[in-house]
Amino acid sequence: MRYRLLGRTGLRISELFLGAMTYREATPEVRRIFDLYSEAGGNVVDTASMYGDSELVVGELLQGRRDRYVLATKYTPTRDRTDLNAAGNHRKNLVLSLERSLRRLRTDYIDLYWVHVWDRHTPIEETMRALDDAVRAGKVLHIGFSDAPAWVVSQANTLADWRGWTPFAGLQVPYSLVHRDVERELLPMARALEISVAAWGALGHGVLSGRYEAPDAAASRVSPEGISARDRAVVRVVVEVAGELGATPAQVALAWVLRGGVHPIIGVSSAEQLKDNLEATRLALPEEAVRRLESAAEFELGFPGNFVGEVDLSPDIYGDDLHLLDGR
């Protein structure tokens, strides 16, 4: 396992994050998963306040070794469906959600506290100031934003820079060979602002593992009958490339995400699955294979990305000597 820095901070984070969303009990198998992940060098465990008893399980499993992990959790979703103020990104919900997560996780600080989803009803200034207060109180070390438009994250970090508040160091988005929308705005923004990116759904809800290609495949997170022709075309190429490289389809799909500097969040139900996923960190995809994978399904960058890309090469815009410029 190799490591990268979280955003513009000095915090070291492993290539693969361990997603704890589905864990409801600290079973022997879940304990094996945590131990294997740790032995492989993994150090980021990602959960959330809305994931049932996941925080309780993570808190139990990290006892005696908590400080060796980068512990990440999230807030926004409701703590009480009958109370409007029990949900959202406003200060009241942040404070109460954070205290609840600290108790459940059996810790006095969170390494990476995610805003779970953009709340358009709360001014971003309130959210950023409340998060900064949590950092200054020592209850949170770093902050991140999950599932938000690029312009909101940009506005938030600009405000933070101007006012001396803590900026977002991480961005969490859905990203895989079958869901590449974030390449239009969110990934370019993250690169420009030096924000680390974590990807949920890196296997397309299991579709890219190839598990649904068998004629008798049973439904799990998705129904085999509901997989589109477009997605099946991608899976076929993933399976072909995996066969050529002596790898599994899941390893190929994760390696593709990793090569872009993005951290896949791997949610596994068995130690064997985890062993398979960990091998993705050792898999180097040839450029020819990458081209085949990315051309397997139509993807349009769309405006303004495609338009600006064309303009960047136009002497009608920048003059006849544009080819002499060594730009960014």
From TrEMBL:
Give the top-rank taxon of the lineage listed in the UniProt record for this protein.
Bacteria
Q: NADP-dependent oxidoreductase domain: from which residue to which, for each copy?
A: 16-297
Keywords assigned: Oxidoreductase
Q: Which GO terms describe its cellular component?
A: cytosol
List the GO molecular function terms: oxidoreductase activity
**Annotated Pfam families:** Aldo_ket_red (PF00248)
What is the recorded name of this protein?
Answer: Predicted oxidoreductase
What is the organism of origin for this protein? Answer: Nonomuraea jiangxiensis
